[in-house]
Amino acid sequence: MLWLTLFVPRGDLSTLKTSFSCRSVVLTGMAGNALRKIKLSLSWRMLWDKRYMPDAHFTSGWFCPSTQKVSWKLRQQVPRRGGLFRGDGASGSLVKRINNSIVRKNSKKWGLDSGPVPLAAQESLLAKYGMTNEWKKYLTVLNLRNYGCTDRCVLTEMVYVHSKLLIVDDAVAIIGSANINDRSLLGNGDTELAAVIVDEAEAKMTDVGGGIRLPTRKFARDLRMSQWRKHLGMLVDVKTTGVQRARTAPSGVDIEKPLSDSSITGIRRLSEANRNAYSEVFLHTPRDSHKTLTEGRELAFPLKIGSVERDFSTVPKLQPKYMVHKRVRLPSVIPSATSEQSSHDVILSTHNVADAIRYLRDNVHGFFVAMPLHWASYQTETPLAPAADSMIAANGLEAKEAIV
What is the Cα–Cα distance from 33 to 27, expressed in whole angstroms? Predict the structure, then answer.
């Protein structure tokens, strides 16, 4: 079993090239391990906690320079992310490599020749035998998200995990600075540092679920279980308007048995339910139905007056059922000694904070959300690099309610 909290784009983010090649052997090793386990009908699981980008504005000078450049780099992984999970080439897609292993394992039963099966034929075969999502038995891709509120608005943000952590079989932990990409791992890019921790404390054979017993070690096992408890919301220890403390693990999830089918299924169901709950309240959170990077923001943020740019200094709209609309009368002319006060009616749209927070608390449990693997699936071009270096403070922006 692998537990990862990593940033995994394809290609080198230091260039504008859209090449989907990745020469690092890490993904090849992961896919090869999966192939061997699938072929021998052995249990193999990978839970991948993957960040995709901050929810904030990422196209203009609203950011300070460093944040803006980081956001631009993160945007580059969207077309490349397709290569990792849904790429066109079998050599560059972990999902397609797993699917290839599943087809190869069943080739004799399905009456196939011993030669390679084209990718299109693989997809057709998996669909024919009801195994289109069979790869999900081996790979679960997650994000982390939280929500909160003020007295007048409801907010949500991705929990941006910058650490790089890999835990293998509750026995080995690798903690360091390297990402799984060519820039970090080929040796000719960034300087990286990592600690590989294999301790001798409480090394023993352990039942990890699924009928599997493995040699585990205290540090890696304790770290993995504490991470699960944290992300499942069991370690929330402060009063918050966001995710509330969970008294127990979700139904079916046994933290001590990560390889059990019920644990993996429980985490997957929880993350999908959380993703759906956020989509029920918010317009702009990433989801598979958004075909481009900006689709959600175009729904949630109004245009600036006299501009084609979105006004990201406003509070984003929520789904209609969580908005309150009221008519108010505002002054049109500032009165003076020679003029009378005039006014006009406007519709003020604000958040229904009580109902939105009530729904989120009833339906969001822990921080896991399912990664929307088809989000921005129509976004094929590499985004342009940022041009402005203005500071957020210099713009004098303050959050304000949207007037519709």
Answer: 10
pLDDT at 163 over 90: no
DSSP E strand stretches across 103-222? 139-149, 154-158, 164-168, 172-176, 194-197, 204-209, 212-216
DSSP letter for each residue of 93-108: -HHHHHHHHHHHHHTT
Whole domain around residue 143: which residue ranges?
2-312+351-395
CB atoms within 10 A of CB 69: 14
Residue 341 lies in a domain: no
- Say if CB 97 and CB 39 are below 8 A apart: no
Residue pair 50/80 in contact by the 8 Å Cβ criterion: no
Residue located via tokens 């301790």: 199
Domain membership flag for residue 74: yes
Report the amino acid identity of residue 31. Answer: A
CB-neighbour burial class of residue 64 (10 A; exposed 0-12, middle 13-18, buried 19+): middle
Phi, psi of 259 (to 5 degrees): -90, 0
Kindly report the three-state secondary structure assignment for every residue of 13-62. Answer: CCCCCCCCCCCCCHHHHHHHHHHHHHHCCCCCCEEEEECCCCCCCCCCCC
Q: Tell me how far apart the terminal alpha carbons of the chain are, to the nearest angstrom.
A: 51
Residue that wins the pLDDT comparison between 80 and 14 = 80
Quick check: is 402 in a domain?
A: no
Please write the tens of the pLDDT for every residue from 335-373: 555 556 566 777 788 999 999 999 999 999 999 999 888
Evaluate the CA torsion angle 357, 358, 359, 365 in order and state its sign.
Answer: positive
Give me the number of domains the chain comprises: 1
For residues 202 and 215, give the distance between their C-alpha atoms in angstroms, rounded to a whole number: 10
- The reply to whether 323 falls in a domain is no
Only one residue has tokens 């949500």, namely 156
Residue 384, judged by CB atoms within 10 A of its CB (0-12, 13-18, 19+), counts as exposed
Residue 251, φ and ψ in degrees, nearest 5: -55, 130
pLDDT tens by residue, 267-319: 999 999 999 999 999 999 999 999 888 888 889 988 877 777 777 778 899 99
Angle CA 82–88–91, to nearest 5: 95
CA-wise closest residue to 244 among 138, 385, 149:
149
Q: What predicted TM-score, i.e. pTM, was given to this entire model?
A: 0.79
